[in-house]
Structures are given as structure tokens and as C-alpha cells.
């Protein structure tokens, strides 16, 4: 892992932990949702920046935003809402990503 990727990981984890402590939601599902989707989007950004498909940083960021939104739905489906109907939000989230 490169130095800038490690820095991004530390900022991601620090932001989630700090905001959870400040707001008082550190032990709530929102922390798990934020951590899971944040790690997934960071992983996508790292992979796409390394394989050089010709995407600009804007394209890589859009891919990460889409993965972030989809991962949020997957995590919510697995720990909060036990129905596949939550995936009906995918078109809305893809437009907003």
C-alpha cells in the first residue's frame, strides 16, 4: 500500500470514528454502514487508479460513489432490512451518485 493510500485509509477510519464519537452513534449500525461503504469505495479508487484504464480522477470518483451507494444498500440489506425491496432504490442512488 502506497503512502497516499494509507493516508486516505487513516482519514476514512478517523473520520468515521470521530464523527461516531461526537454524534454518539459509534455503536450504531450507521458506523458499520459508513465503514463498509467507505472501505469499498476506497478499494475501488485504489484499484482503478492502479490499473490505468484511461479514466480521469473524475471517472474514478464517480465509480467510487456508485460503489459506495451500492455497498450501503448491501450492508443495510444484511443487517437492518431483510427484504430485497431495498434494491429498488438502486436507480435513484445511481442517478444521485
What does the model show?
The protein is mainly α and 97 residues long. It is built from 4 helices and no strands. Helix 1 runs antiparallel to helix 2 and helix 2 runs antiparallel to helix 3. The longest helix is centred in the middle third of the chain and has 23 residues. It is flat, with a radius of gyration of 15 Å. The two termini are 27 Å apart.
Brief write-up:
The chain is mostly helical and 97 residues long. It is built from four helices and no strands. Helix 1 (3-23) runs antiparallel to helix 2 (29-51) and helix 2 packs antiparallel against helix 3 (57-79).
Q: Any descriptors?
A:
97 residues; mainly alpha; 4 helices; 76% helix
Strand content: under 5%
Largest sheet: none
Query: What level of helicity do the residues show?
Result: over 70%
Low-confidence stretches: none
Tally of helical runs: 4
Distance between the termini: 27 Å
Using DSSP, what is the number of strands?
0
Order of helices and strands: HHHH
Mean pLDDT: 91
Q: Which geometry do the CA atoms define?
A: flat
Structural class: mainly alpha
Radius of gyration: 15 Å
What's the layout of helices and strands?
Elements: H1 3-23, H2 29-51, H3 57-79, H4 90-96
Helix pairs in contact: 1-2, 2-3
